[in-house]
Design a protein that fits this description.
CATH superfamily: P-loop containing nucleotide triphosphate hydrolases
CATH topology: Rossmann fold
Shape: elongated
Largest sheet: 5 strands, parallel
Structural class: alpha/beta
Radius of gyration: 25 Å
Strand order of the largest sheet: 2-3-4-1-5
Strand content: 5-15%
CATH class: Alpha Beta
CATH architecture: 3-Layer(aba) Sandwich
Number of domains: 1
Number of strands: 5
Amino acid sequence: MTRSRLTDPQPAIGERLHARLKAKLAERGIDPTAPLPDTPEPIPALETAQRRIPVDYRDALPEHPDVAAWVRVIADAAVAPNADGLHPHYGTAGRRRIAHGPSLLLWGGTGAGKTHQAYGAIRALTAAGCAVTWHATTAADLYAAMRPQAGVDPEHLLRRIVRTPLLLLDDLGAAKGSEWTEEITFRLVNWRCQNRLPTIFTTNLPPVRDRDVSPQQPVLRDKIGDRVLSRLSGMCMPVHFTGPDRRFLHR
């Protein structure tokens, strides 16, 4: 039997197959010798996220330096698939997944850009190559979804939201408060605090009352209680947004 030496030229494909491929390309008007177009490589995670992000925020970027720094921390802490399993070296191939890390509390006046930066952070994480399973809701919508209704198990819904790897809870403190809403907020914040799951909270309210806060101005502490605020203080990096309402400026 004749053995081919390593120095023998070996065609990548047979001549007949090469001729068939060339004919097919010619039928479709494709020139295989033409230079490839310089187009950016699609990012499936970002494309998927775009379909879920509200239209107003689909071009959002984490422009605030503290938000951008948080994105880098979360991206750097992402782990390979099945890294936490019993047999991590047998894990399936794939992009790194969001793991544990600090959270963000974005606070400031209405229209200061908090929600814009929150969605910018989500977009940046997906563009960084992280597999991001995320959920976004306002506090008011969360409470509405938790109210008893036919065919819905609120406990199952809360467990699913609480355990999502990345959560955006918008407008914390804006909904009308009660002992029931405070309990829902506490259960959500407490579980995510104990398990160090990255969460982005936004609020129009100052976290606490100090000498710079008007006596007539409500504060987050009054809305959510000391137990929730204590956990937010331990798990979040606060970022204060100032400036006029951007929605009026963009009219």
